[in-house]
Design brief:
Number of helices: 7
Order of helices and strands: HHEHHHEHEHE
Largest sheet: 4 strands, parallel
Strand order of the largest sheet: 1-2-3-4
Helix content: 40-55%
């Protein structure tokens, strides 16, 4: 009987049942601002850590990630390039961060110019006045953007007990070829100060002890058998 696999949106990944929600990307998108997240699901996958565009980036880089068994272990005769995954995702995210910051600054400059044109306020010296407005707006926008990032980092680090995510899977992977090893690499790339515990009720081969988890209080991954 395929009941658990059929009913637990192992789901909508087949893209033939849009009425069944795939939880993993929702965990990624809606759990970012939660201080603590602790729950159990039948299946998990890398979609908790990477978006569709990021999966495409890995694919374009020629990195094979479809190397797993239904239980999430690396299949016999297959290998996973953990270093390449880490490097490609890190570089991609840094690039995306720069693009978001640039877009934020451009928007702020555009709004400042529009506001000056509408109100007639600000320096009155032709082209140079426009340059001053743009420079001031760009400087203020960059500072604001960076302060917002720092504020989030401080909030995480200063929260008593830190931010934690514990997710227990009692069946396996959403996709037959996903692996725990890939998810552990991707968990390591999460924000500093956020402790991830990926737990399985059925796998012990990659288990880490509670002491191991305590030694990783500020970042990334732990995988344990509860």
């Amino acid at each position: 009987m395929e009941s658990a696999r059929a009913e637990s949106s192992r789901y909508a990944l087949a893209q033939n049942d849009p009425s069944t929600a795939h939880l993993c990307p929702r965990i990624r998108d809606f759990g970012k601002n939660l201080h603590h997240l602790d729950f159990a699901v039948p299946y998990v996958c890398r979609d908790m850590f990477v978006s569709g565009p990021e999966v495409e980036v890995l694919s374009r880089a020629g990195i094979a990630t479809d190397v797993g068994t239904p239980e999430g272990e690396i299949a016999v005769g297959m290998s996973l390039d953990r270093h390449a995954i880490q490097q490609v995702l890190s570089e991609h995210r840094q690039k995306q961060s720069r693009l978001r910051k640039r877009a934020f600054v451009i928007q702020a400059v555009s709004e400042a110019k529009a506001s000056n044109s509408a109100t007639g306020t600000g320096p009155k010296s032709g082209a140079s006045s426009t340059q001053i407005i743009e420079l001031n707006a760009a400087r203020d926008a960059e500072y604001s953007y960076e302060q917002e990032e720092c504020k989030r980092a401080r909030t995480i680090l200063e929260t008593k007990g830190g931010w934690t995510r514990k997710i227990v899977a009692w069946e396996g992977m959403c996709r037959d070829d996903d692996t725990w090893a890939e998810m552990m690499v991707e968990a390591d790339l999460e924000e500093g100060g956020v402790e991830w515990v990926l737990a399985s009720t059925w796998m012990t081969t990659l288990a880490l002890s509670e002491a191991d988890c305590r030694r990783r209080p500020t970042h990334g991954r732990c995988l344990e058998a509860p």
